[in-house]
Design a protein that fits this description.
CATH class of the largest domain: Mainly Beta
Number of helices: 1
Radius of gyration: 22 Å
Largest sheet: 7 strands, antiparallel
Shape: globular
Helix content: under 10%
Strand order of the largest sheet: 11-18-12-15-16-17-19
Distance between the termini: 27 Å
CATH architecture of the largest domain: Roll
Number of domains: 2
Order of helices and strands: EEEEEEEEEEEEEEEEEEHE
Structural class: mainly beta
Strand content: 25-35%
């Protein structure tokens, strides 16, 4: 749900925040780690521009593998995770262990979830792709068996199972690309929570600063081409060249940047061009 504000100041005039339906504010202490090190720096040298540490936060250890097979668990809490867009759910297993998982839409406190070949087809359960019916929405999909979910982990995202051909399953990813994945790879049923995250508006630069983003200057606002190829065209309509370029001079729009060509054999259909 998106919350809007009365324009009592310039900072909240256009602010839109996401109201997250969470039940617990403090995380499980044993499942958190301190985030150390710098952001955007490599031994003092800028490796990622316009980034820095931001507000202090703890990392939540997420169970992407779901390797506790055929052991039921009960959802004890739905929590906010500052490191990702989707909510996370705290699971209490019958053997006493606690783990965090990504919380899909519809997962509520008190529900039972499990993983394995014998798990039911319900929200939050993790099964091999070969055991999930066609047309089902899934997330947290493995690329290599046993490695843990690596695809479709963003807020509101889900993939759809289209077909099963031999040892592979065709999956339509959120980008529109159809890809072949081994049928023995695991995936979790359901679409991830917080689908309205893309509709938020921070409203002011200060909130962006707390998230770890430093100020960014547009290329067209710079004065000389030695600073940026777009410089000197601030009063013109456009950037003064057929296609945009990076500060170092290479094209940034329309140029293919895919390097892992050995995985092209798993792509059934390219992503939809917008």
């Amino acid at each position: 749900m998106i919350k809007t504000y009365k324009a009592t100041s310039a900072g909240i005039r256009f602010r839109k925040t996401l109201v997250k339906q969470v039940s617990k504010k403090r995380p499980e202490k044993r499942l958190t780690r301190v985030l150390n090190g710098t952001v955007g720096r490599n031994h003092g040298t800028i490796s990622s521009r316009h980034r820095f540490q931001g507000a202090k936060k703890f990392y939540r250890l997420i169970d992407f593998k779901r390797d506790k097979k055929d052991i039921p668990a009960i959802v004890s809490a739905i929590e906010h995770d500052p490191n990702r867009g989707a909510n996370i759910a705290l699971l209490n297993y019958v053997d006493g262990e606690k783990r965090y998982i990504l919380a899909p839409e519809g997962l509520q406190i008190g529900m039972k979830v499990s993983s394995g070949k014998t798990a039911e087809i319900s929200v939050g359960n993790t099964l091999p792709l070969e055991n999930i019916p066609l047309g089902m929405d899934v997330h947290n999909i493995e690329i290599n068996p046993g490695q843990g979910g690596q695809m479709v982990r963003g807020a509101g995202n889900s993939a759809q199972i289209l077909a099963k051909e031999g040892n592979y399953v065709n999956i339509k990813l959120p980008s529109g690309e159809v890809k072949k994945v081994l049928a023995i790879c695991m995936a979790t049923i359901g679409a991830l929570s917080n689908s309205d995250l893309r509709n938020i508006n921070l409203g002011k630069a200060g909130r962006k600063h707390h998230l770890g983003w430093r100020p960014h200057v547009r290329g067209v606002a710079m004065s000389t081409p030695s600073e940026h190829p777009h410089a000197g065209s601030y009063r013109d309509n456009g950037i003064g060249m057929p296609s945009p370029k990076s500060p170092w001079g290479w094209k940034t729009l329309g140029k293919k940047t895919r390097r892992r060509t050995h995985t092209n054999k798993f792509i059934v259909q390219r992503r939809v061009k917008k």
